[in-house]
Fold this sequence. Notes:
Elements: H1 8-15, H2 20-32, E1 39-44, E2 55-56, H3 68-81, E3 84-88, E4 91-100, E5 103-112, H4 118-141, H5 152-169, E6 179-187, H6 190-197, H7 199-216, E7 222-227, E8 230-237, H8 240-256, E9 267-274, H9 280-296, E10 302-304
Parallel strand pairs: 9-10
Antiparallel strand pairs: 1-2, 1-5, 3-4, 4-5, 6-8, 6-9, 7-8
Helix pairs in contact: 1-2, 1-4, 2-4, 6-7, 7-8
Amino acid sequence: MAANACGHDWVVEITQQEEEPELDQALINAVSELDEFSRFAIYINKFFKPGLPARLLNKDSVIEELSEHEVNELIEKVSRNKIRISRNYGFISTYVPIYYMGNVVGVLVIESEKELSERCSMLAIYMLNIYANQLSLLHKSQLDPLTELLNRQTFDKKVIEIAADAAIEHIEPDSKHRHWYLAIVDIDHFKRVNDNYGHVIGDEVILLVAQLLKNNFRFEDYVFRYGGEEFAVLFQASDELDARNALNRFRGCVAEYPFPQVGNLTVSSGFMPIYEFEMVASLVQKADKALYHSKNMGRNRVTAYSELDIQQSQPQDDSIELF
Length: 323
């Protein structure tokens, strides 16, 4: 610990990270350099929202992984009493809270032969708080400022990551595993909203549709504002029918929603599975073709790319208003 007694090097290492996996590893490295213990596990609720589970950050921890219920109990205990210490089977367990905006969002579990010094405990709290703050900044940089959905830049990175994983896992389309799907969603006749009601109301419509999207998909799915009135969703489903049902549920929610001043609106979407590695542009182009089909068939519908006759998937009448 003497070589980095004040934690300055750790602060620099953690705060210079611009990608979440590298940030996680920087924290793990920093904690492992504290020389009063070697056994530890870090649990963090990365969404910073109550009710969501805190996940194990260092998967190679030698400490047996706790259940979601056990982690929640620990977080509740350290919320009330800050650092907690217990003695079991000849070693000491120390539980250090991870704070963000005054709330405990995780816990560092340490097993050691003797009680940690106050200096070591304070350094641990210090680096954990720096990590949580940097994680929040990374999350904010990935968001669209109007809707707080993930932004277009984050979309490209996440699609590449999922497509690469699909190529490695070689999950067959007809297997019983859950698959990733890409959907492109567009608000029908949105130009009319801006023309008739103005851009302020148009922004409100985009914001409300974004909220409906977030409400209709799981926290582990990814919802993006792709551009203008267009959205993208990366989500998991058991098969094409399951994926279609998810998108139709959302479509129905939008159709039934009473948008202030505007009244009723609809959305169209196109979707496709991600079974193997493809470039982002290629995947988006296929989902777009399915979306265009939905538009050309009357809007307010969901189309799978697998339904299309590929050679006739482009609109034949250039005068058709797609949006």
